[in-house]
Amino acid sequence: MVNKDYWEFSEETVKQVSKEMKKGLNTINKINNDIITIFGSSQIEEGKNDYEHCKKTAFELGKKGYAIITGGGQGIMHAANTGAKKAGAPSIGIRAILIEEKEVKDNIYTEKIDFEFVFLRRFIMYVKSKAWIFYPGGIGTLDELFECMQLKYTGIRDKKPIICVNKKYWKGLFKWMEENPYKNRFFKHGKIDLKLVHLVDSTEEILKILEK
């Protein structure tokens, strides 16, 4: 479908939205483990620091009984699902079929589902997660981060941790946010409130936050 089709064939759109919502909810309702959703760039290659860090983190989380959800793509998503599968944990990929990226064929998922509607895909990725972990990424990752921050800020979602990995990468963004005049409750005395957004470098820091 093209954009115009969504409103010109509104009944078909509603049917497809309902179908995808049901498919997504059925998938996450089958998961009895606590869920962690991991976001990050699809461009980070295997062997790079952030890739290997994410794979280790997902592996350690999987060993502790967490399920891992990602966007089902390459890069950080691939690393997270690889680590989770290696740990024997539920490893779920929730892919947007309209986003042009190479589909992952590797056997790193316990379940993978495709979505046409990106807003539904995100809802399923967010809604049951105990925490949201963000690795370095581009516009898509930043969009997801700001959406999660807004959901937490408004109270639409439960008070779950937002964890940004690689302090050096995120430093410039949060410095800009601290310095702009439109501060919100994510900032306290001109600094990011680490009770709301956690900036970390190590897997051990992530585990400690989740244990609180």
Describe the structure.
- The protein has one domain (31-211): Rossmann fold (3-Layer(aba) Sandwich).
- Helix content is 47%, strand content 18%.
- It has helices at residues 3-8, 10-29, 49-63, 76-86, 118-127, 139-154, 167-179, 203-211; strands at residues 35-39, 67-70, 91-96, 111-115, 129-134, 162-165, 187-188, 191-192, 197-200.
- The strands form two sheets. A seven-stranded parallel sheet has the order 4-3-2-1-5-6-9, sandwiched between helices. Strands 7-8 form a two-stranded antiparallel ribbon.
- Strand 5 (129-134), helix 6 and strand 6 form a beta-alpha-beta unit.
- The longest helix is centred in the N-terminal third of the chain and has 20 residues, at 10-29.
In short:
The protein is built from eight helices and nine strands.
Task: Itemize the secondary structure elements and their pairings.
Blueprint: H1 3-8, H2 10-29, E1 35-39, H3 49-63, E2 67-70, H4 76-86, E3 91-96, E4 111-115, H5 118-127, E5 129-134, H6 139-154, E6 162-165, H7 167-179, E7 187-188, E8 191-192, E9 197-200, H8 203-211
Helix pairs in contact: 3-4
Considering the chains and any ligands shown, give keywords for the structure.
212 residues, alpha/beta, Rossmann fold, seven-stranded parallel beta sheet, two-stranded antiparallel ribbon, 8 helices, 9 strands
Q: Output the CATH class name.
A: Alpha Beta
CATH architecture: 3-Layer(aba) Sandwich
* Structure class: alpha/beta
User: What is the string of helix and strand elements?
Assistant: HHEHEHEEHEHEHEEEH
Strand order of the largest sheet: 4-3-2-1-5-6-9
Mean pLDDT: 88
Q: Kindly report the CATH topology.
A: Rossmann fold
Instruction: Give the beta-strand count.
Output: 9
Question: What's the domain count?
Answer: 1
The radius of gyration computed from the alpha-carbon positions, rounded to a whole number of angstroms, is 17 Å
Shape: globular
What are the segments in which pLDDT stays under 50 over at least 5 consecutive residues?
Answer: none
How much helix, percentage-wise, in residues?
40-55%
Q: How many DSSP helices?
A: 8
